[in-house]
Specification:
Number of helices: 25
Helix content: 40-55%
Number of strands: 18
């Protein structure tokens, strides 16, 4: 009779299993509505967090489509019992259907464009983040920038809805999925989130992101709480229908109150910690997002400084070669800048490490903008693009390399410098002969110069000759005083582009001699501290010899070109109290106004110029200042024992040959030498990598901190129970450890005696442990330490069995599950039972 009975039991078990599966597939209407509402609200908050990145109505359309497809496919998969692969196919199909009209709308222009848009929609899942990081915000609907958020919202909504509709504990995994959708807007958002907010004396950085993030967390906690309540009500209703009576004592109410208080306390602690630690950390480092550091700046730092190779444009082979041609420019566009150098390291003027080169997603140009076309000639190649001073839209490239050039263009809006880092087959980057683009821009506005700051922005102890020359001019610390200093610097300088009057210098010398009787003077290249100090030393010594009251012709002494005088003018501005930077570019016009002629259509090496831009500290606009030296009045050589005539006359210029100085005094800087940095490149790259890795590790630690706390708490509890000084307490602690392990792994603990609970476990080890604990508690004599060790051996055996039965994944989740702590809070022991554990066995003997 045992076989039929066993067969009937197996059939009954199979019937119950089918009933459980059938009930799990049925959708409970309140829980379904609650789950769908949670996913849609979380998706809306994620859309709000991502709004500063895009600022286009299409983002709302993307979020709406993702919500409908994600929630609808999850409901259909549950009701129709779809397998996982079929649900994935449905989501993938919906992705392909909506990716072009929603995420790549520009591709709808033609059938081939639609195919290209589908390709961008697929590849953008993996590569789209890089394009998004290198674009200036807001990106709008430029190219395929909506693909990353479209993929995240659609896949995230489908996954979150599918998890939220699950009847088991895995529904809680929907919370991290929705949080990831919200983190997207913070990670890819602007580096500067706006002005901080002061609340009760506490500074809150990025208040908008903080508020939306807290709302997302609050919505998640509310959904978990309501879902738990609905499930409890459903379970109670099912129990009433089965056994007739369900009692709910005051202990359960008290446990529920304690759980709510514990959850509220955790939220309060998290908020207080965030609001107090945030301002403290904000003082340590600036806000870091994924767009803080991008590749273009690394490319710029690897290039030779444009001012350092300035003289190469005046060599014979480059002087008359066309660098680029400009058409369509009117009189309002008087300059085209190529590089803006705002950092000084003592050797070179460079692009600052704080520069932000970003892509331009497009937009509307200024009302006064003019369109001009630039065609690169044979005399120029490199990353720096000739640009109007106020370009705010991306250039429109044409030609065979148009797509590659458009994807590799970046602009630093702070300085107005545009670069293109498109790679070439030979490994070089930038534009080359034949490349063409049209750009919108305005001319350089004339901004009145305000008075400088009250203190010098330059360490004058490192520039004693500059400081002495400024002091000798006796000019007031005003804008007019600075303009007079620049005028004297230009009038007392003399233009020279080379060290020797040789064949390489013949082109520019001949050009100057066509304008005046230009006598050649040699000058060193470079614009290091030593070279600029030599320039001011020449001016100061000449003034000391002839006297400050002498004519301007007698004070001419400093020899150099735009490279030295631009650096000298920028340092002079900083010594007075101005912020300054050097600009390399060309001046537009129809005539020759100085030693560097203006460009009137065809810009050759002869037209390359350098000027400075200055502004008072705190001012918004920069003022353009030309510092090019004159070339019509040659320096006058005055010996120390020569007495000047009382009625000064213009002395005859002696004809002397060029004498090269000794090598030890040669201060020439190689015009093609790369920028010298304080640290090797591998060190800079290593430090950048270590910084990113360190931030990732800290973030990972913060994310895993709650789980680490649970693991440490469980380990501490287990060690305290095992090492209890009283053997009876250790034996009882072994049983409590087994019950906690079963609670964490998801097996409900049976009510009744220990033997009943052990029998329900269907484990001989659990039965032996229950008997051992009962003997330890109720026997006349207290247990020994050997009995306690045996109890814990049984616990270890049973825990190993549970791990083998449920697998490694569920065992890991059980180790991170805090359910046993909540169970301990929800089932308080009477005081007498706690005293029974702590009272020595002499109590029983006395009884």
């Amino acid at each position: 009779m045992s076989a039929p009975a066993g067969l009937d039991g197996a059939r009954e078990a199979a019937r119950r299993a089918r009933a459980r599966r059938s009930s799990s597939l049925r959708l409970d209407l309140p829980q379904t509505v609650l789950a769908c509402a949670y996913v849609l609200v979380a998706l809306g908050l994620a859309c709000a967090l991502a709004w500063p990145i895009y600022r286009t109505p299409l983002l709302i359309g993307v979020a709406a489509y993702a919500g409908v497809v994600g929630v609808g496919s999850a409901i259909a998969a549950r009701m129709l019992r779809w397998p996982l692969w079929l649900h994935l196919v449905a989501v993938a199909g919906a992705y392909l259907v909506g990716v072009v009209p929603l995420a790549v709308p520009a591709a709808l222009s033609s059938p081939t464009g639609v195919l290209r848009g589908l390709l961008d929609g697929v590849t953008g899942i993996v590569l789209g983040w890089k394009q998004l990081l290198t674009l200036d915000l807001p990106v709008g609907q430029y190219q395929a920038v909506l693909v990353p958020v479209y993929a995240l919202f659609l896949i995230g909504a489908a996954l979150a809805a599918g998890l939220a509709l699950s009847p088991g504990r895995r529904a809680a995994v929907a919370v991290p999925v929705t949080l990831v959708m919200g983190v997207f807007g913070i990670a890819f958002g602007p580096t500067d989130p706006g002005a901080p907010l002061l609340v009760a004396g506490i500074r809150i950085d990025a208040p908008r992101e903080v508020l939306l993030g807290l709302l997302l967390v609050a919505v998640s906690l509310l959904w978990l709480s309501l879902r738990s309540r609905l499930r409890r009500r459903a379970a109670l209703a099912a129990a009433r229908g089965t056994v007739g009576v369900v009692r709910q004592g005051s202990a359960s109410t008290a446990a529920a109150v304690r759980r709510r208080l514990l959850g509220a306390a955790l939220i309060v602690v998290a908020l207080v910690a965030g609001f107090t630690a945030g301002p403290a950390l904000a003082g340590v480092s600036t806000r870091e997002t994924l767009r803080t550091a991008t590749e273009p700046l690394l490319v710029v730092q690897q290039q030779t400084t444009p001012l350092g190779r300035y003289r190469a444009s005046f060599e014979k082979d480059a002087y008359d070669r066309v660098m680029f041609t400009v058409s369509g420019a009117d009189a309002s566009i008087d300059r085209l800048r190529m590089a803006t150098l705002d950092d000084w390291d003592g050797e070179h003027f460079l692009v600052s490490g704080d520069a932000r080169f970003s892509r331009l997603p497009g937009g509307s140009p200024a009302a006064s903008a003019r369109a001009l076309t630039v065609t690169i000639g044979e005399g120029y190649s490199g990353i720096w693009l000739p640009m109007p001073s106020d370009a705010r839209t991306a250039p429109s490239f044409s030609g065979s390399r148009a797509a590659a050039l458009a994807d590799a263009f970046y602009l630093d809006k702070q300085t107005g410098a545009g670069i293109d880092v498109a790679p070439e087959p030979d490994g070089a980057r930038g534009v080359r002969a034949g490349d063409r683009y049209q750009v919108q821009g305005t001319g350089t506005p004339r901004v009145a110069l305000a008075d400088p700051g009250s203190s010098s922005l330059l360490d004058l102890t490192q520039h004693p000759q500059l400081a002495a020359w400024v002091k000798a001019q006796q000019q007031p610390r005003t804008a007019a005083g600075f303009e007079e200093l620049v005028k004297r610097l230009r009038d007392r300088g003399y233009l020279s582009h080379s060290l020797a009057e040789d064949d390489q210098a013949s082109a520019w010398i001949s050009a100057l001699r066509r304008q005046s009787a230009y006598p050649f003077e040699s000058s060193f290249a470079g614009h290091s501290t030593a070279r600029v100090e030599e320039l001011f030393s020449q001016l100061l010594e000449q003034q000391d010899r002839v006297g400050s009251a002498s004519s301007a012709d007698m004070l001419v002494a400093g020899v150099g070109d735009d490279e030295q005088f631009a650096a000298a003018g920028a340092l002079l501005a900083r010594a007075v109290g101005y912020e300054s930077r050097v600009v390399v570019g060309v001046r537009m016009g129809a005539g020759e106004t100085g030693g560097i002629p203006d460009c009137s259509g065809e810009c050759t090496g002869a037209n390359l110029a350098a000027w400075i831009e200055v502004r008072a500290p705190g001012a918004a606009d920069w003022t353009t200042v030309d510092v090019e030296p004159q070339f019509t009045k040659a320096p006058t050589l005055i010996s120390l024992d020569h007495e000047l005539p009382k009625n000064p006359t213009v002395p005859e210029q002696p004809q002397v040959g060029t004498v090269l100085p000794p090598a030890a005094q040669h201060d020439d800087r190689d015009a093609t030498r790369a920028v010298v940095t304080e640290q090797p490149e591998w060190v800079v790259v290593l430090l950048r990598v270590l910084t990113i890795v360190g931030l990732a590790v800290v973030t990972l630690l913060l994310l895993t901190l709650p789980f680490l706390v649970v693991l440490v708490a469980k380990r501490t509890r287990r060690r305290r129970r095992r090492r209890a000084p009283v053997p009876e307490v250790a034996v009882v602690g072994a049983w409590a450890e087994l019950m906690d392990a079963r609670t964490d792994i998801g097996e409900a603990a049976s009510t009744g005696t220990r033997r009943d609970a052990a029998a329900a476990m269907d484990s001989a080890t659990a039965v032996e442990l229950a008997a051992l604990v009962d003997i330890a508690v109720f026997a006349e004599h207290p247990p020994t330490r050997d009995a306690a060790d045996r109890a814990w051996e049984l616990v270890d055996t049973e825990r190993a069995r549970l791990r083998a039965e449920h697998g490694p994944v569920r065992s890991l989740l059980a180790a991170l599950n805090p359910a046993s702590f909540v169970r301990a809070l929800g089932r308080p022991r009477p005081v007498s039972s706690w005293l029974a554990f702590a009272t020595p066995r002499s109590r029983k003997a006395g009884a």
